[in-house]
């Protein structure tokens, strides 16, 4: 177990919230003052009983107000003051705690998301999107709910015990122990329930994470679900996950719901003991009637709020389970660290050397073995090969989405590991076969990554990518919403927007990862024309399965089984009569 994991989640959370200490203290002070004024009315009732019974001999009379009417007016004035201050501090603590909960929730979500973005791709491959969404949304909301209500409850119950307990021992030490008798049992019961509830709520959080993961997966794959008429099958799968979540919650509720009834029975013992034995003390003249009234009311005020401990305990355990999951995400180690060398864009020439590189995903067999490639600055090179030969993996290594296991990759003679992420990735424009468009307008998607670009610059980039004409035919032109993942556009249209995005970025290095593999011949021709223009005077790496798209490259590298097996121009490779020739003949329909 790591040092972080051995520390209680709320201790770590409290350390995390050091910048909010002043707001926490203000909110705590308002909660305490509100509870003190909330506990004052029983004292006023006792004083009123004292005035009615003793009249000129009452406590207030001893302070100088002899007239009974005057004494009642003093009590009325004090009542206005007490109720007014109680209301003011209630407004203050609610506003402070709620705003504090919102602020901590906001900052924690941002920190968790910021950390998530810094994690390597392998982390995401092992986890579902819905599960991560559950942490960033539901778990952090659960923590916010506890800070909103539960923290105040704990403070006010503690204040009640201290104030009322102190008052009891001051006014009637002989009866006080009876009211306090249930306390150890309530505290012991609370701790026992907490220990038994903790694993049940941890299971609840895991179950809701699995449910969210399945829902997210299904919403992303709704087209596949419909095309295979798998709606009933998916409803059954969601039903199974939702049922598991419901049953997990039922197990937690079965235990948490038993808390209040059991505590109420224990409280009843303390209340009836005070009522009976305190009454006897008052009848025997050992206690003033006003004091007895105060004790009865205060006993109810002392013990009854403890029944709400069940709800507070419930929220606390849910918050603890959620906090553990959020902190576990924040503790996830960052495997790929940026370098500190700057690389000004204007100085990038684009010469890339891949030297004896080996790479494997996790503990699998190497995808790339002892690979060495030379990519001259300003030239177009192609990397071809059958599926699974390691072509696209090279792209991920060049962008440092993964770390090489051995060997090194240099850009203009500098190792990629030494360069700042922002500078390295700013120098590379990627157009992949799997184009991701964000929910937003066409213009926003082209501008993505070049956020300061003007509309004329966007139009110019779209024109170069041969996208302008089809954009102008869309309902709102550049302001047309493309839908989530660009679902309102065809594959070729999405591809051309991706090229426009890369053109706008003006990168010295352009990577085309199967950029024309999923489009028709007419669209491919249009894309090829635009690519011929944008590859001029910049280093271009074309990853291709379709050989016709790379036949004019300055050099073609052929990969097989993660290794370089052939290299040369299109003509040279055809003359060799090797793997490239076989691939070419198959694609051209030759035997």
Automatic annotation (TrEMBL):
The membrane topology term of the UniProt record is: Multi-pass membrane protein
Q: Which SUPFAM superfamilies match?
A: ABC transporter transmembrane region, P-loop containing nucleoside triphosphate hydrolases
CDD domains linked to this entry: ABC_6TM_exporter_like
Q: Where is the ABC transporter domain?
A: 352-586
UniProt key word Transmembrane: yes
Residue stretches making up the ABC transmembrane type-1 domain: 25-318
Q: Which domain of life is it from?
A: Bacteria
Query: Which cellular component terms (GO) are annotated to the entry?
Result: plasma membrane
Q: Which Pfam families match?
A: ABC_membrane, ABC_tran
Give the stretches traversing the membrane: 68-89, 154-171, 177-193, 252-277
Query: Localized where?
Result: Cell membrane
The alphabetized UniProt keywords are: ATP-binding, Membrane, Nucleotide-binding, Transmembrane, Transmembrane helix, Transport
Q: Which GO terms describe its molecular function?
A: ABC-type oligopeptide transporter activity; ATP binding; ATP hydrolysis activity
Query: What is this protein's name?
Result: ABC transporter ATP-binding protein
